[in-house]
Design brief:
Blueprint: E1 2-5, H1 20-28, E2 32-35, H2 47-52, E3 56-57, H3 61-67, E4 70-72, H4 79-82, E5 90-93, H5 101-110, E6 113-116, H6 131-148, E7 170-174, H7 178-190, E8 193-198, H8 201-211, E9 216-219, H9 222-231, E10 234-237, H10 252-256, E11 263-266, E12 287-290, E13 293-296, H11 306-327, H12 329-335, H13 337-340, E14 343-346, E15 349-350, H14 353-359
Parallel strand pairs: 1-2, 1-4, 2-3, 4-5, 5-6, 7-8, 7-10, 8-9, 10-11, 11-13
Antiparallel strand pairs: 6-14, 12-13, 14-15
Length: 367
């Protein structure tokens, strides 16, 4: 089978879908790997490293798509890349299709099989290929939020950790999954006052035990969210409904009642965001202000720490990729129900309920 590795072209996206070591592992199994020139340079991997691993450096992005049976990426394709797909190809990447109707339409028109990292489940129903990037984004959300609380970046000049005699900043984390737990770890480490909100009280109980009362846990009712957000210096959106749009927990009117110069980092922007005023931004232009509140809503946060992120991502994706190219897509998804949940579109049909619901499209069960 031929595996194609294009260069990512989203704004400041420096990750790559396959390490040279991964290319070597695939080539040793008898597969061919075609890599777009400079695909790995942002993560610190040269074309020569891929050549030494047995891969072929293509002449162009178009040649990668022309040769490949399976395209392995990091982020969803942009529209110019969608035009390069042909019927029957397999795309293996982060998709987040619930937030990108135009990409969904193009992938349906191309009649490919698109498998999403973020909806593939392990046997314990965890999301093994989403977890490493969620861990990174959760950690980054606090350090980025702390930066934008600085006066020179538009914040109201609060140091999250405080100093003796001055109370620390208040961080409110909406969601207690992988992103939320990683954000808690960083915020507690900085010495902030941390409140975490979640619907699952058992999850909150576990976190309370873990931090020995160092954090405040609250069940996520509308009243509780309102009270916490209005007093916050930094609000981190960490809500996830796999494959579907994120619920809006913070309304526009609630944003208007937040403290001027407070900051929102909405990590759930990939799925539409959990704040009504959220809209996707880029690393080139990462923030905007609504009602005096700074919003950071970059949809590919880990892209600017590509060395760490690429290693973490490929550690998780390689076992699935080897299974996919060894057994073929039909057998791979038939034998692994959790992997089958990663399939979002197939042969012109939407086969993931969350994507269908997000766009009002017909849903066709995969199996």
């Amino acid at each position: 089978m031929v595996i194609g590795i294009p260069k990512e072209i989203k704004d400041h996206e420096y990750r790559v879908g396959l390490l040279p070591d991964g290319a070597a592992a695939l080539c040793q199994r008898g597969h061919d790997v075609w890599v777009e020139p400079s695909a790995g340079t942002g993560s610190g991997f040269s074309d020569d490293e891929y050549r030494k691993a047995g891969a072929t450096i293509a002449g162009s992005k178009a040649e990668v798509f022309e040769k490949a049976d399976v395209i392995v990426k990091v982020k969803e394709p942009v529209l110019s890349e969608c035009n390069l797909f042909r019927p029957g190809q397999v795309l293996f990447t982060y998709l987040h299709l619930a937030a990108v109707p135009e990409v969904t339409k193009e992938l349906l028109n191309r009649k490919i099989t698109a498998i999403a990292y973020e909806t593939t489940e392990a046997t314990d129903r965890s999301l093994p290929m989403l977890k490493p990037m969620s861990e990174i984004a959760g950690r980054m959300s606090v350090q980025i939020g702390a930066q934008y609380l600085e006066k020179i970046h538009g914040g109201h000049g609060v140091l999250l950790g405080g100093v003796p005699g001055v109370e620390p900043g208040k961080v409110v984390i909406l969601g207690a999954g992988v992103v939320g737990a990683s954000a808690i770890r960083m915020a507690v480490g900085l010495g902030a006052q941390v409140t975490v909100m979640n619907l699952d009280v058992e999850r909150l109980r576990m976190l309370d035990d873990q931090y020995h009362g160092r954090i405040v846990t609250r069940a996520a009712s509308s009243t509780a969210v309102e009270e916490a957000v209005c007093s916050a210096d930094l609000v981190i959106g960490a809500v996830l409904v796999p494959g579907a749009k994120a619920p809006k927990l913070v309304s526009r009117s609630l944003v208007s009642r937040m403290k001027p110069g407070s900051v929102i980092v909405d990590v759930s922007v990939d799925q539409g965001g959990c704040v009504e005023t959220t809209r996707p931004t880029t690393h080139s232009d990462p923030v905007y202000v609504v009602d005096g509140v700074v919003h950071y809503c970059v949809a590919n946060m880990p892209g600017i720490v590509p060395r760490t992120a690429t290693y973490a991502l490929t550690n998780a994706t390689m076992p699935y990729l080897i299974n996919l190219v060894t057994n073929g897509v039909e057998r791979a998804i038939r034998d692994d129900p959790g992997f089958a949940k990663g399939v979002n579109v197939k042969d012109g049909r939407v086969v993931h309920q969350g994507v269908a619901d997000a766009h009002g499209l017909p849903f066709t069960p995969l199996l």
